[in-house]
Structures are given as C-alpha cells and as structure tokens.
Amino acid sequence: MQISFLIVTKNRPEDLALTLNKLKLLIDLSIHEVLVFIDGCSKTEAIISDFNWVNWTNSRESLSASPARATLYKKAKGHIFIGLDDDAHPLSSDFILTVETTFNNNAHLGIIAFQEVRGLFTSDQSALQHSKDLESYFTSDFVGCGFAIKKEVYQATNGFPIWIDIYGGEEPAVALEVLDLGYTILYQPSIKVNHRVDVIQRKLQGRNYFRFEHQLKNTLRYYLVYYPKPVRKVVKTLWHNFKKYALKDWTYFKAFIKVFFSTLFKLPSILKYRQPVKAETINNKLNLKPLNYSA
C-alpha cells in the first residue's frame, strides 16, 4: 500500500460523500486506501453502504478529533499518510504524484503542508482560480484539513495527542515532535485542497466562545507538555487572553476562569504526558517562517 487517505468525520455526511466521490476519481485501490473514522454520529452511518471501498471505523462514542485521528492512523498501511477534513478535497489530477515526488526529492522531509483554498466554488477550476501562486518554504506547522506525513515519521512520534480535543493543538503537537526528530515541514502551495467552508458565513458568526475556550485550554496543555520551561509561556498566554478577551466580555471571562481552574485541577494528569523537546527545537521553530494558513 503506497498511500493512505485518512478522514475523521462528525455529522457532515453530505460533505463527506462529496469528498469521497472526489477521491474516487484520483485513487487506484490496488495501491491506495481510504480510511474514515465516524466520530459518534449516527446519521453518517446511512452512507456507509454507498462507499464499500472505504475502510470504515464507526465509534458510537464521540472521541473528539485528535483522539479519533490517533485511533485511525494506527490502522493505516500506506507509506504516506494524507490527512483531509471531511469537507476538503484535492484540486488537481496530479495531486498524488506531486506528493510522492516532493517526498522523494527530500529525504529529511517529514510533513508536507498543502495550500488551503477556503470557500464554496462552482467547480474545482473556479477554486484553482481563487488560489494563490506562492513559493514553497520550510515552516513549523501544518493544517489538518490538508497535509501529508511519512508513515515512518508519524510512527516515530507519539502520534496525534489524546490529551487534546477540538480546536487547535493537535497539529502543532505533531509538528513539534517531527521537528524535534530532525525532520522538516514544507509548505508546498502548489499542492492545493479546497476546504469547502462558507467564508462569509464564518465572518458573520462573530465571536466564538466555544472555540476560544478550547483553543486556550489546548494551548496551555501544549506548553506544559512540550516546553522545557513552560511557566513563562503559560503566564504570558493567560495574561494575553485575559487582557484581550476576558477583561472585555463577560462570557469570555467565564470561559477564561473555567479553563484556568480546570487546568490547575487536571495538572497532574496533563503532566503524565509531559515530554519536553530540546531547547534547540524551540529556537529553530521560532526562526521558521509561519504557515500561510489559507488562500
């Protein structure tokens, strides 16, 4: 098996079906596989029989994105793992060849981050026209909606962390472990995926208190697990979020307090996963160009 496509899905059967139909046009099932993890959502079960070429894992209980990925990736057999969101699909017919060639040209490359083209388009050609012509560069992160990682590199890490839940943290955790192993992460914008999100609707939604709470919680855990000296980063993060959000909005304030005390209460269990990376890795990460998250 050369390539494994891996998708975690929850309550979006129509989006998932579209993604799977797009993938079917690109893959050769004799050398490629598609694995899907249904994360505790019964309505997705209705489409399983429509895609009998997919390797399904159906969890009755919702695990959340990162633990679900951790479970799914253990089942993959390909030499290269390609991670996609259930509402994201490749935009070019040479997608697979370009991923393989990029890895073959760089023995120290661990992860390829794709260009994320956000939006709802009438066709893939239209999405490509909205993408950007950018130069590739080495970076410190990747986006879960579209990336590739060598199997041997992923297995050398601890995998997607089970101590992180939705909204931020799982990709930076894997990325930091990959960098600590001495591998590089390449942002390759010529490899494009359409992340089919309604950009206008997201902007109109305004404040997202749920996202704020989970991102803050996961960021604190990230520092506590990986940083050799995490106290300064934790204090700085708390102070920044208190000034920018909690001090100005009562709902943000309640979410901030909830995260603060839950982190203190769960500190012993969080520290069970502590595995500080080398100080050199942190310095190298800071010197890398940040990821261009979207077109």
TrEMBL record:
GO terms for molecular function: transferase activity. Keywords: Transferase. It comes from the Bacteria. This is Putative transferase. It comes from Algibacter lectus.
